[in-house]
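Section 3.1: Structural characterization of target chains.
Under the original work plan, the team committed to producing a structural model for every single-chain target entering the pipeline before any wet-lab resources were allocated. The record below documents one such target. The sequence was received from the expression subgroup and is listed exactly as submitted; it comprises 320 residues.
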Amino acid sequence: MKEFELINRFFTGRGITRRDVDLGIGDDCALVTIPEGCQLAVTTDTLVEGVHFFSDISPKALGHRILAVNLSDLAAMGAEPAWISIGLTLPNVDETWLEQFTEGMHDIAEYYNVQLIGGDTTQGPLTITVCAKGIVPKGKALTRSGAKVGDWLYVTGDLGDAALAIEARKQGWELSDEDRSYVQKKFDYPAPQVAAGQVLRGLANSAIDISDGLLADLNHILTHSGVGATIHADKVPVSNALKNLPDEEVRLMLAMAYGDDYQLLFTVPDSNRVAVEKRLAEYGVTPTCIGQINANAGDVSLLYKDKPWPFPATGFEHFS
């Protein structure tokens, strides 16, 4: 199967069709109409075999995952996902693999009302790049730079499950069948907090998605906002699977410094706490308050059961 046959079979005409797409797959560029009074939010992520996923990952899970991590970035800005383009590098054409991969991608795209509008295919080591675009009311996007002294720090859900899935496999840790299945699903099929991001517009001061680890991503907010933070490590929410690990320090390391969670970390002024918790609950999200913003620019004070706690890691960073 050659390139254009591949595109026509697995990408053209599949998935949803949005009214705001004037010209999709098949030309040199796609054309879309941005609603009046809105801004375009654009994000790009690349997943590389052996770096971001194991070689034996289910192709359907990989198709879901590559889109989910991009939608998570849009969620952090409070944007509504709309369109995606994909760059796919393949070592060879495996029709069964492609069918499953595109099924996973089209399924999540349909769930979030996102249309595939273009991209590129080429031959080489397995690498997938997605550019996702969304729309947000002008001037209403959440950013990393809005945190204020006195804001409360929240996360939308449990942290550390994807880390446990990875490390259990790499280190040979023994997990129950139930726990292993649970954390592997959390890694393979992350759930971007798209609805939560849109709820937070106008209520939160800043937000970021947790992809590189809680502490690393928090540092981005602190740097851009010129503030510091106090974090209560014992309040960071974790699943029962993580709680079943016997070593508490390992549990906290996975939850705070590993990443791949794709929950949202956000700051809320005291006056909006009740509104945020109530609105998120309407979408099935139970946020957890884990700390507070302070005036010590760039500094993170870690507490465990209200006592100072030194922590040896900060999060994932390429080329480190």
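The chain has two domains: 3-137, 152-308.
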